[in-house]
């Protein structure tokens, strides 16, 4: 097999969920039917790596110091919604119901709560709540997934904020147990937001 | 959402089988955990598009005029195996049973046999059989998929070669009906090759 094809197949297998057979299909599709798409993807990857970094306030991906959601003057500074990923944040935004700020933990908490990479996200959240913007927060809406890991993360954050003058709420249990937020239908998410407790 | 992130999500959705949610997961994985992998993929895509073209003899992807299989002096010129895709060819090669040459049709035949893009592949095959290398071919092994499209393609090729001094065989029916070759286990493929009729 040509070296360039081997490299391409191997690189595609670096994508999450892509094994040898999916990589073949992708490579042959791009080479056979969509070479422009292949070059566009190459440019988008290079540009994304060069330009995208974490928002210094909410930690989502952005191409500036602060993301558009953090700088939007129309948003309510007293409300802060904690999500696991930018995809979860996007799912909440699509409901059109929530007008506060966000904090994106990034990554999922493993079964060992104390050692998961998301612990760093929790630490960053606690720092965020100590800054000048943190003082404005009156309610923290925990919108982590309703999985064992998401519940553990929510519990960890609740515990860490005991004694602080911040109301901690959780999305209502309209969200089906065991599911991940980004796959839930909009109506259910909107209902769960309205019924937060 | 940052423009660079939007472009990346859109470009990833250009990959076959990748919708909005899979694209999000891929983008966030690359940006969060594997920026080197993202750059490697960008380079592999650019290099693949620049270097990879079709072998002038068998039509598979290669970085030279002729692919290594076509130039391998140890292979039997009298046997030519017709496959739909390079992935199918790779599946046959992994059995280690076949020592002839290949012809890769590229693409699948649609329900309308006469109008599918694979018809071009069939025309290219007929041209290939008229060249100097074509004269050496004594047996054509049809290894198209055992689907309606694959059977139609095999039938089309058999008909086109009526009256030519070439034995046309088909992989034996050890291959499960309705399945695509690249997903079949090696033992079944090897058996089907030995029993070709
Ligand atoms: Zn932000
Ligand atoms: Zn070749």
Would you give an account of this structure?
The structure is a homodimer of 197-residue chains. Chain A is α/β, with parallel strands linked by helices and 197 residues long. Chain A folds into two domains: 3-51, Orthogonal Bundle (Helicase, Ruva Protein, domain 3); 76-170, Dna Topoisomerase Vi A Subunit, Chain: A, domain 2 (3-Layer(aba) Sandwich). Helix content of chain A is 47%, strand content 13%. Chain A contains nine helices and six strands. In chain A, the strands form two sheets. A four-stranded parallel beta sheet of chain A has the order 4-3-5-6. A two-stranded antiparallel ribbon of chain A has the order 1-2. The longest helix of chain A has 17 residues, at 35-51. The radius of gyration of chain A is 20 Å and the shape is elongated. Chain A starts with a helix and ends with a helix. Residues 110-115 of chain A have low confidence and may be disordered. At the A-B interface, α1, α2, α3, β2 and α5 of A face α1, α2, α3, β2 and α5 of B. The complex binds zinc ion (ZN) (2 copies). Chains A, B: May play a role in DNA repair. It seems to be involved in an RecBC-independent recombinational process of DNA repair. It may act with RecF and RecO. Chains A, B: Belongs to the RecR family. Chains A, B: It comes from Serpentinimonas maccroryi. Chains A, B: Keywords: DNA damage, DNA recombination, DNA repair, Metal-binding, Zinc, Zinc-finger. Chains A, B: InterPro entries: DNA_Rcmb_RecR (IPR000093), Rcmb_RecR (IPR023627), Rcmb_RecR_Znf (IPR015967), TOPRIM_dom (IPR006171), TOPRIM_RecR (IPR034137).
């Amino acid at each position: 097999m040509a070296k360039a094809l081997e490299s391409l197949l191997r690189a595609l297998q670096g994508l999450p969920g892509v094994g040898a057979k999916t990589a073949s299909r992708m490579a042959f599709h791009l080479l056979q039917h969509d070479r422009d798409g292949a070059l566009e993807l190459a440019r988008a990857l290079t540009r994304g790596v060069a330009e995208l970094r974490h928002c210094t306030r909410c930690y989502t991906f952005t191409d500036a110091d602060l993301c558009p959601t953090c700088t939007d003057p129309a948003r309510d500074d007293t409300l802060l919604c904690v999500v696991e990923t930018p995809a979860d944040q996007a799912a909440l935004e699509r409901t059109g119901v929530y007008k506060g700020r966000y904090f994106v933990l990034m990554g999922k908490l493993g079964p060992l709560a104390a050692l998961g990479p998301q612990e760093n996200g929790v630490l960053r959240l606690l720092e965020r709540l100590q800054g000048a913007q943190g003082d404005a927060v009156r309610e923290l809406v925990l919108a982590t997934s309703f999985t064992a890991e998401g519940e553990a993360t929510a519990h960890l954050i609740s515990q860490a904020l005991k004694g602080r003058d911040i109301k901690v709420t959780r999305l209502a249990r309209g969200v089906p147990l065991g599911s991940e937020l980004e796959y839930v239908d909009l109506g259910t998410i909107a209902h769960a937001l309205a019924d937060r407790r």
